[in-house]
Write a structure and sequence with these properties.
The chain has about 800 residues and is α+β, with helices and mostly antiparallel strands. About 30% of the residues lie in helices and about 25% in strands. The chain is built from 23 helices and 34 strands. Strand 25, helix 22 (about 675-680) and strand 26 (about 685-690) form a beta-alpha-beta unit.
Amino acid sequence: MIIKYKLSDFAKDMAVQNKQVVDLLNGKFGEVKKHTTPLSEAELDFLFEHFTRGAEVASFEEYLASAPAPAAKKPEPKPAPAAPAKQPSRGDGRPVAAPAGTAAPASANQPAKPKAPAAPPPKKRDGLGRVRIRDDKPEKEVVAPKREVVTRTIDTSGAYVNLDKFNDKYNELASTKNVPTQNRRKPAPSRQKPPRGRGKGAPFTKKQETEAERLQRIQLEKARKAQLKVSIPDEITVGDLAARLKVTAPQVIKKLMGLGVMASVSEVVDFDTAATVAEEFHAKVEREVRVTIEERLFEVDEDDPKDMVARPPVVVVMGHVDHGKTSILDAIRTTHVASGEAGGITQHIGAYQIEKDGKKITFLDTPGHEAFTSMRARGANLTDIAVLVVAADDGIMPQTVESINHAKAAGVTIIVAVNKIDKETANVEKVKQQLTEYEIVPEEWGGDTVVVPVSAHTGQGIDDLLEMINLTADVKELKANPNRRAKGAVIEARLDKGQGPVATILVQKGTLNKGDVVIAGTTVGRVRTMRDAAGTQLETAGPSTPVEITGLTDVPAAGDLFDAVEDERLARELADQRSDAAREEQLGSYTKVTLDNLFSQIEAGEKKELAIIVKADVQGSAEAIKQSLEKLSNDEVRVKVIHTGVGAINKSDVMLAGASGAIVIGFNVRPDPVAKADAAQDEVELRMYRVIYDAIDDVENAMKGMLAPKIREVEQGRIEVRQVFKASNIGTIAGCYVLDGFVTRGSKIRIVRDGIVITEDEIKSLRRFKDDVKEVASGYECGIGLEKFNDIKEGDIYESFILEEYRD
């Protein structure tokens, strides 16, 4: 129980005016107080400090020696009955009873008031040891405060009342020794109201009993608290800790302040701090082990090798555009469909299975390496084998190189299918020679990569390709446990008007049954229908089986992992937690690696390898930059160029950089609008250079933490050249259309032709019709003349920008 100490009570006990206390508090805390306002602990500490400072003495012994008044008052508690001096007195001091019929004027003749001065001097010391000057006035001055004391009710029935404040025994001892008290209020003895039920006779015996009872009660409370057992997790709020300790939050906060920890009710403290506070309350502490929802929902036990059975391989087909990926997939599906599907594929779900020599093979029909990369970025490495399609007449192309780098980064086995061998210009040996330049050596040349010549048009080599896939799968010994709850990944998902959310999933472990509760990312649902690629209704789906399911509450994201669970309520709770975490992560300040923060990440031990993607205008420049950058590797960080290419920076480069945590460096090339937008969204850093040594110096300085202030470009707009005019007196004028942004008279112009930077120049003239203008906005036509460059062609892109200095 907490006793409220009002301002008026304090002023009365200190024998000062209410206004004096109010002024002190206003000057210290700046708050307007009323006489009925309860005082806080900080305010009481300040007031006690202020008033006790006024009672400070140089020598404590002299002060005790100069206080005889309380000692003289101690032995005469009984002369108090002399107060009724209104009755006549005999010579021996006994009062004379007045007759019943007589008046009492005789009492006026008795010297009742002259006896009052015979008492000790009217000087009295208050609770702080200060001397009170009491006027010799009628006794009503002393009786007046008692009316206020009577109106105060002190509830002593609570368990936490400090009875010392109301114990006459201690008050008398303190007044006898004249010891000033600090930070504690003790009412004057004359103003206390005796407890109810206490008789006037033998008060000391009654008090002795009360004190014994109080001590016994405290011991019982300590014993009860010592037996209290609390379970505390690794982190707990102050309010929760107080509830577990069965005390109030202010009591816990007070203990924390004693430990030097300033915490509010809603703040979190660690286990060690909470345990220390609990021990202060005589509680026995046990560490609480929290089981996460994932641990309760998902099976975390490792599979028993006895339960492992062979599973079909999961194959993805990758390669350059128009090299025949789709043609090979169509040839495989039309010639090797599973039994019962002779009627052909009735429904395309993004994945399917075929049979070859009684063995099943699962193909993922994904849009090349893009979905491959996005799934790997989410941690869903679905594929076991990657079939790299290369046209025999074209050879290695830029997207072929990207596919090779993606497959290597994912750590999957590569099988090369050299397509279009039926053409007259086909040259398989040339393709093998080109593959060796990218560390892919065919088996015929002593390497470990299978190269199969095929023709999707005639069907030649398709069976050989499938046999090689089965052989590779046998070598890899792919196995899974079907006797457990299903686990896998989402390949693709869509929202169907009639069926609702539809997801194509690949079961990687266990067996998925119709009616199972499935959680995929932030989506939960019960499998309502399950179909294969042919549209056949299924009841179960084992490992490496692609199926299309319905019944989810929302459309999951491609690459999300799914799990079959038993408790739907817990699954929905986990989905809500994931949604909240994803939202916080999106709003958080997560920063990917850049040259500006590279050194800080190296110091923190977060970055051991710097991945870089290099794009240049010619292959020779790209190779030179790659070799120069990789030479910068040291003991702390390794520079690894994961991909080099020729041409503009495209969406594929940004996707690879986002999945690998890489930086994209462009040399004399520019990113296309889609790649630029994706890079901004995915927080992938794009760095453009015109001089090779600038790129090398920036990376080297970033590794050393010495990146100097930079000059950056502020992009303004993109302008398309639609017509070229040549005049003998003014030079070449480009008739332009502003695609987006704007261009100003002071803008710099970068000429880009087919994604390659031609040059940079400044604007000589900017006109609309015949008028010179300062700015042309998006959607308007204009004429632009450059200072130096005149070799302008229709279709060129002007990028307007300005340069500004900045410091990180």
